Amino acid sequence: MGGAVLRTTTQVRALTPDDLPELRALLDRDRLVNLFVRNRIDATGLQTRWLGGQVWGYFEDGTLVSACHAGTNLVPVEATPAAIEAFAERVLADNIRPSSVVGLRSTVLPLWELLEPRWGPARSPRLDQPFMVIDHDSKLRPDPRVRQVVMDEFDTIYPACVAMFTEEVGVDPEVGNRSGYRARVSQLISHGWSFAIIEDGQVVFKTEVGAATPYACQLQGVYVHPDLRGRGIAGPAIAAVVEQVRRTIAPVVTLYVNDHNTAARRAYERAGFQQTTTFASILL
């Protein structure tokens, strides 16, 4: 007689504050890649009213194996092939429609393959985004003009934020939820997470820390004024940001960039960033 077949019981459910210890342990398997979701759960404590969505857990025999942030962004975490299928089923069943699917290329692409027949085509698929890391000060001489933006400069920095977002994402952030985008920019300034070179009322360079944990942070929205591009501003400016961020926010700095943006990639590499893995983003 053959032995009994052991069946694995699986479950997908919304995680609650009671699940925080197990979720944090899962996120800590890769503190850099999982930084965005860790920042979100640390900031909200998995309270739905603050999270603006849910974090789902995929369990096998009662153990949390994978997770997925399901809000404005759909972000799989440590997702196994079985978990990816389960998350896709849950997304479609709940009729959730995020603005993007973001994360490790190895999990985003199979997840999108399951969602695309219902959701596609994507507005902007970005299938090859080097994820880059620096854990030391840059060898480039940092641009001494870079500093934290203060709230009195909101009206100066805000148009540059809108211009960068529109150029990078392909939509105007003021359309549909202008107050939400203004609030986000204001929040980053108040946190001390907005950095820029501002001269004579003009934003020469700017970037923000979009997410942070005690271990690492992630830069976003890197922008050089269009009239000043090609002059080598970005490398030393990024070097200055890295130095200041490592001193005041977190010891490791990360970012991800579109593969085809060779000018940006060169600037990050000159500043000392190295690619450690590959992300993908599906903008819907």
UniProtKB/TrEMBL annotation:
SUPFAM superfamilies: Acyl-CoA N-acyltransferases (Nat) (SSF55729). InterPro entries: Acyl_CoA_acyltransferase, DUF4081, GNAT_dom, MshD_Acetyltransferase, UCP21603_acetyltransf. Keywords: Transferase. Transmembrane segments: none annotated. The keyword Transferase applies. One of its GO terms (molecular function) is acyltransferase activity, transferring groups other than amino-acyl groups. The keyword Transferase applies. This is GNAT family N-acetyltransferase. It comes from Aeromicrobium chenweiae. The lineage of its organism: Bacteria, Bacillati, Actinomycetota, Actinomycetes, Propionibacteriales.
